[in-house]
Amino acid sequence: MAIRILIMGLPGAGKTTLAQELTKYLEDVDWYNADSVRRAYHDWDFSHEGRIRQSTRMRELADDSPKKYVICDFVAPLPDMRNNFKADWTIWVDTIREGRYADTNAAFVEPDVYDFRITEQNAEKWAEFIATHILENRRRPAFDWKKPTVQMLGRWQPWHFGHRTLFERLIQRTGQVVIQIRDVEGWQESNPFSLAVVIQNIKNDLDPKYKGQYEIQVVPNIVHIGWGRGVGYTSGEETFDESIKLLGIDTSYSFIQFPSLEAGQLFYQNMRKSVNGGRTVIYHYGASHIQSEIVTTEAGKLLRNK
Question: Are residues 76 and 164 in the same domain?
Fold first, then answer.
């Protein structure tokens, strides 16, 4: 029986593009695209029953494949559809907040279980990464609560590339990290992000490569850590050169979510004060990711980033 690979996500997220790239790395592979299958069966029923029928049909096509691997890319918005398909590998393409169809957006339930979560539209990069894991049957690691672990405590207001650089250094110590988020929303009038937004920003950045190697914990507004002697662990500051220290004020902010325009402008002003002369900060406010809008020092207008 073929190894079943499900590529799921909202319409327009990039599922088909990723599937096409993945076929280049997996020899002896079949590929079934949802629209092509619906067209072949003259079935454009997107009711609940129609969606369930489509998932069952995709599973049957996969089961009948004579190839070693079979890729099926379809939205699979409902848990029942994913359960019907019974994928050996699940890839969630999570690059957009809303697709083209309101009914599908409303029906879509984000998966709790998946092997890969892709948060950027870069099919060439992630197809190779995913294919390597599938070909070697290399499953993502599971977080081990008994294993030596590095603690990473902060506000993460916001999480940015400099934080990721720190994370990638720390994870080399033990192979897993617990990221602790201080609950500071609104504290000192300079922490605009809710816990939900902070958590989502961290997951968006780390899940594609490090899922299973970190856990997130929410903690009180900790301002001091103390211990007695002989406790069995160490602490230390990681140092970086100036180019890394300033990474938090560049295009890495393209995935930041702000709760309001005012919060984005306040954050920008605070960041501008922290570097010589100020820099343009790419940012986002509202309900979905925007990677190409910036706020300028002149009148605070939104301009398209060419």
Answer: no
Contact of 193 with 164, CB cutoff 8 Å:
no
Q: What is the pLDDT of residues 140-193, one digit of tens each?
A: 888 999 999 999 999 999 898 889 999 999 999 999 999 999 999 988 888 888
Q: Identify each DSSP E strand in the chain by its residue range.
A: 3-8, 29-33, 69-73, 89-93, 116-118, 150-154, 177-182, 214-219, 281-282, 293-295, 302-304
pLDDT tens profile 44-57? 999 999 999 999 99
What's the Cα-to-Cα distance from 146 to each of 151, 210, 272, rounded to whole Å?
Answer: 14, 18, 42
H helix count then E strand count, the chain: 10, 11
CATH number of the domain enclosing 160: 3.40.50
Neighbouring residues of 81: CB distance < 8 A, sequence distance ≥ 6:
51, 52, 54, 55
- Residue 156 and residue 295 share a domain: yes
- Are 186 and 64 contained in the same domain? no
Supply the range of the domain harboring residue 285. 145-306
> Is 62 found in the same domain as 11?
yes
pLDDT at residue 37 greater than cutoff 80: yes
pLDDT exceeds cutoff 60 at 299 = no
Domain count, the chain: 2
Residue 158: what are its φ and ψ, rounded to 5°? -105, 170
Residue 277 has pLDDT above 80, yes or no: no
CB 45 within 8 A of CB 38: no
Are 157 and 299 in the same domain?
yes
Place of tokens 């230390």: 236
Final residue belonging to a domain, choices 92, 110, 135: 135
Q: Mean pLDDT for the chain? A: 82
Q: Which of 130, 115, 180 is nearest to 150 (CA)?
A: 180
Question: How does 172-182 read in b/e, with b if 16+ C-beta sit within 10 Å?
Answer: eeeebbebbbb
In the prediction, which pLDDT does 306 show? 25
* 150 and 285 fall within a common domain: yes
